[in-house]
Amino acid sequence: MKNKLLVMLGMSLALFSCAEDDAQKIESAPKTKLSQKATNQDPYALGFKKAIKEMSQLRYLPTKEYTEKYGNELSPERKQILYPAALELIYSTGITEEELKAETNGDLNQILNKAFSIYTNK
Length: 122
Fold this sequence. Notes:
Blueprint: H1 2-27, H2 33-38, H3 43-55, H4 64-70, H5 76-91, H6 97-104, H7 108-121
Helix pairs in contact: 3-5, 5-7
Keywords: Signal
């Protein structure tokens, strides 16, 4: 019994140490062309980029159960992180609040998709 307990303890320690190594690799990954382009953009695009980084932190990543249930859809918590920066980015293009409401019917997913489209085109 003690041997099994010690083996399980050792395995769990190894698992946690590997998980920390993976987290460090993610944080120290080289910047992509998209993120390098964003540094030359306007402050609204930079704000959106910061929101993307914020929602990509490990504490906001979806659980296995959420991914199995909803696939790759962003969780409501992650959407709320992006939403304010998305609105600022959209409004910075000259679109008014009324035009945005008419175009998206206030749908959060459509607003975020529009912001991602603007961000990738800049």
